[in-house]
Amino acid sequence: MLYHLLYPLAGEFGGFNVFRYITFRTAAATLTALFLSFLLGPRLITALARLRVGQPIREIGPDHHAKAGTPTMGGLLILLSLLVAVLLWSELDNRPVWIVLGLTVGYAILGFADDYRKVTQRRSDGVSGRVKLFWQFLLAFAVALAIYFRPGFSAELSVPFFKDFSPHLGILYVPFAALVIVSFSNAVNLTDGLDGLAIGPVMITAGTLLLLAYAAGNKTIAEYLAIAYVPGAGQLAIFCGALVGGGLGFLWFNTYPAQLFMGDVGSLALGGALGTIAVLVQQEILLGVVGGIFMLEMFSVMIQVASFKLTGTRVFLMAPIHHHYEKQGWAEQKIVVRFWIVSIILALVALSSLKLR
What pLDDT score was predicted for residue 63? Predict the structure, then answer.
């Protein structure tokens, strides 16, 4: 919005020329989201506490958890600051930005419905898994189709560390992209189980995608790195920056001991947004590297369920895997910080792959 209002004035006042630069607007969006989340956080916590929007305890959770009643739906804080910052600093005629915003809002509504049922029924289960998956895939397929039919889109798959290996998926790209979006959304949701655990890797992944989006939207850089050039993708860096800023502000209130939980309204929406950005910049497989912590959490649940159904035994003491380490006696803060460290290492590996091929 500010780009459309102020950049045309650059001819009269040269200072407004700065609004043409994506780097400037990305930094501005990051700070805007950060300050908004700082400003709105205490008010949201007070409002949710007044409405008794407290977190139900999972009956199968670790015995030492005593967090019932802590306000949930804190993802609203991230989403509100994110949306305001993106609308203020993005070019509003950019199609990729609207695709990500649409998916994010759609998944946020689904997550809100899930959280609402949990807090009103005072139980840890909300919307049934089948219903959630149906709506997640429906929205993801709509997004995948919108991306597939973009003018100039190529359904080639970029494989990290392999420069000349880019299989063309054709129409199969649509279900593949939908699967990426849904899987990553649910992986982030499964990771959101300890104070600050999910938001750290979310910000690290968003920061990595910020660089990838900027590179993909710049033809010179894209050609130099031998990655897909995606016109308009640079604007997604603004979205990623706003997500980092909103996430930092949320972390202020979510760090141990948490005053506010993210809830499904945040985890489903943010995971879906990151998955969609990765699809838009055609770095779907690299997303699995950057978001390796989320993949580990998701696969730990899948392995646990499959093992129990097939053999009657459990591989982990409890799944997702962060609860396994809790059962082993690791302190919550130790698990969170170590998972963050691994996430940073994976981000560096992913960025290194752009040249190591």
Answer: 47
**Three-state secondary structure along the chain?**
CHHHHHHHHHHCCHHHHHHHCHHHHHHHHHHHHHHHHHHHHHHHHHHHHHCCCECCCCCCCCCCCCCCCCECCCHHHHHHHHHHHHHHHCCCCCHHHHHHHHHHHHHHHHHHHHHHHHHHHCCCCCCCHHHHHHHHHHHHHHHHHHHHCCCCCCCECCCCCCCCCCCECHHHHHHHHHHHHHHHHHHHHHHCCCCCCCHHHHHHHHHHHHHHHHHHHCHHHHHHHCCCCCCCHHHHHHHHHHHHHHHHHHHHHHCCCCCCCCHHHHHHHHHHHHHHHHHHCCCHHHHHHHCHHHHHHHHHHHHHHHHHHHHCCCCCCCCCHHHHHHHCCCCHHHHHHHHHHHHHHHHHHHHHCCCCC
**Distance separating alpha carbons of residues 200 and 338, to the nearest angstrom:** 11
- Residues 238 and 222: their CA atoms lie apart, in Å, by 18
Nearest to 144 by CA among 108, 111, 169, 115: 169
- Cβ contact 278:287 at 8 Å: yes
208 vs 231: CA distance, rounded Å:
19
Low-confidence ranges of the chain (pLDDT < 70): 11, 54-68, 122-124, 357
* Number of Cβ atoms within 10 Å of the Cβ of 32: 23
Q: Are 185 and 275 in contact (CB under 8 A)?
A: yes
d(CA 29, CA 240): 9
d(CA 4, CA 70): 41
Q: How many other CB atoms sit within 10 Å of the CB of residue 301?
A: 16
The C-alpha atoms of residue 181 and residue 269 are separated, in whole angstroms, by 10
Calpha distance 49→44 (Å, rounded): 8
pLDDT of residue 68: 65
Choose among 209, 284, 291, 282: nearest CA to 243: 209
pLDDT of 67: 66
